[in-house]
């Protein structure tokens, strides 16, 4: 740990001795900063501390060496810990500032905490991960011993290596932090490097006991098998449980399968609550949608409605649950694939639904869900299939679930695992060929979403597949068979 803090100390020394180019403000920025400082002073004098704090935090994000910004922020923050931090920053910029020195002496010794932590918490709660990432890096750069700063940063960094680094710093600060210890256990062995400097050649293993163990484990790999990470065992166990429940529901006894889905859904929710805040909790909450889909489709009173409306009735509460889960998980719109980028490519992906729909029709040969090919009979069922089976299912599986599983298992296994789950949920059609086909299609959809970052193409392809499968091809083939029988029969 000493080398890490030495680097951070060197960084701060450079900040004190000279202003780096990264912090140089152009004329426009200086003008904006001066105006915000003036408005903050007015707000402080008027007693509007919340407004003043907001303005001063904007100033300090633009210019971290604003002496007046830190000094005035000390009057706007809520806690002594934040006040000590601000006054310490003032003295690091100008050691002759007598007001800051007297105020700090009056506060006395105690803990310090960056006021940017509160901003980062707000950004995390609202799903703005990039904003939180930048704020938390500022927090730990300015306060290398900020336990909460490193712990929260571990949840927004991009790689497992950076996550290991952050969690190891948390344990170095407080070895009794059980959350950090459990998260490290879930991550397993591996390298760790700082998220503060990701330039090539500056990878710094920080968890000595783990990195050394990893070296020993790799040297013994030829003679002994390594332990399987816990998160993989958990994911595999729940996948097996979903598969068993689906087989029971579709082939053996639906009521037994329904009971198993209820139990599995409850276990997943309880497991999620017990692991909340740890790296695997998003995986668990997203997996709860597999039994939830089956519970809704089996338990809702659908017999009195036309079959096409079953999709709408089941999808309505499912969409509400998805919306709530996405708010809780904090995934951004971009992470979910709700973007319109690469539209020409997305349109081409959507056209693959024509061939996919034809192939699946040849496998299943379902009865049509509409009475005729007339437009007035087709548009409503087609819209239901596009939204309910296209958009909502893709939002759940390729959006939420794939994002969550990718964070836990990696990008490749994220695509594969979700494809298996998606295929297993098609066991109800009682066709092995269809399960294999759906698995291949799910792999294709998952790769498209992972590579393009958009759900538009796979939503169109999925909707088009089901429109052909359940509407146009069954009706078209029926008409073709009638014409053929009439011609050849006569």
| Number of structurally distinct domains | 2
- Going by helix content, strand content and strand pairing, the class is mainly alpha
How many helices? 23
The average pLDDT value, as a whole number, equals: 80
* SSE succession: HHHHHHHHHHHHHHHHHHHHHHH
Q: Distance N terminus to C terminus?
A: 90 Å
Quaternary organization: single chain
Detail the poorly predicted runs: 1-25, 199-227
- In one word, what is the shape? elongated
Helix content: over 70%
Give the beta-strand count.
0
Characterize the largest beta sheet: strand count, sense, and whether it forms a barrel. Answer: none
- State which percent range the strand residues make up: under 5%
Whole-angstrom Rg: 28 Å
Protein model, in words:
- It is a single chain.
- With 490 residues, the chain is mostly helical.
- The chain has two domains: 2-217, Tetratricopeptide repeat domain (Serine Threonine Protein Phosphatase 5, Tetratricopeptide repeat); 230-485, no CATH class.
- Helices cover 74% and strands 0% of the residues.
- The protein contains 23 helices and no strands.
- The model is unreliable at 1-25 and 199-227 (pLDDT under 50).
């Amino acid at each position: 740990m000493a080398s890490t803090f030495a680097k951070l100390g060197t960084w701060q020394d450079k900040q004190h001795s000279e202003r780096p180019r990264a912090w140089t403000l152009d004329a426009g920025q200086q003008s904006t900063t001066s105006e915000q400082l003036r408005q903050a002073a007015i707000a402080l004098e008027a007693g509007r501390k919340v407004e003043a704090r907001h303005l001063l935090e904007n100033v300090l994000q633009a210019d971290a060496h604003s002496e007046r910004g830190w000094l005035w922020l000390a009057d706007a923050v809520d806690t002594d810990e934040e006040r000590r931090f601000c006054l310490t920053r003032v003295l690091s910029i100008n050691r002759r500032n007598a007001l800051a020195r007297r105020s700090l002496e009056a506060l006395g010794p105690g803990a310090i905490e960056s006021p940017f932590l509160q901003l980062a918490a707000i950004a995390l709660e609202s799903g703005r991960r990039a904003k939180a990432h930048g704020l938390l890096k500022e927090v730990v750069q300015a306060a290398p011993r900020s336990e909460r700063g490193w712990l929260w940063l571990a949840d927004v960094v991009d790689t497992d290596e950076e996550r290991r680094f952050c969690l190891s710093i948390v344990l170095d600060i407080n070895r009794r932090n059980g959350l950090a210890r459990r998260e490290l256990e879930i991550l397993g062995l591996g390298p760790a490097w700082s998220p503060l400097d990701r330039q090539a050649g500056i990878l710094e293993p920080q968890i000595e006991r783990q990195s050394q163990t990893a070296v020993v484990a790799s040297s013994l790999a030829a003679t002994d098998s390594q332990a399987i990470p816990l998160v993989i065992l958990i994911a595999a166990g729940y996948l097996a449980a979903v598969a068993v429940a689906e087989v029971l529901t579709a082939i053996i006894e639906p009521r037994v399968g329904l009971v198993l889905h209820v139990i599995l859904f409850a276990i997943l929710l309880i497991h999620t609550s017990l692991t909340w805040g740890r790296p695997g909790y998003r995986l668990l909450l997203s997996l709860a949608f597999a039994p939830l889909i089956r519970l809704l489709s089996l338990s809702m009173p659908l017999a009195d409605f036309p079959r096409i409306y079953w999709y709408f009735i089941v999808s309505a509460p499912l969409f509400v649950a998805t919306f709530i889960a996405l708010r809780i998980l904090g995934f951004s719109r971009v992470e979910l694939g709700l973007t319109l980028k690469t539209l020409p490519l997305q349109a081409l992906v959507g056209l693959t639904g024509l061939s996919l729909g034809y192939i699946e029709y040849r496998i299943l040969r379902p009865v049509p869900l509409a009475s005729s090919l007339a437009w007035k009979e087709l548009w409503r069922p087609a819209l239901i299939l596009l939204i309910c089976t296209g958009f909502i299912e893709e939002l759940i599986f390729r959006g939420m679930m794939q994002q969550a599983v990718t964070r836990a298992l990696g990008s490749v296994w994220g695509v594969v695992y979700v494809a298996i789950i998606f295929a297993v949920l098609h066991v109800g059609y009682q066709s092995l060929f269809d399960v294999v086909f759906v698995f291949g299609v799910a792999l294709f959809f998952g790769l498209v979403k992972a590579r393009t970052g958009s759900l538009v193409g796979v939503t169109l392809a999925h909707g088009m597949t089901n429109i052909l499968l359940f509407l146009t091809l069954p009706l078209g083939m029926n008409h073709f068979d009638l014409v053929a029988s009439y011609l050849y029969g006569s």
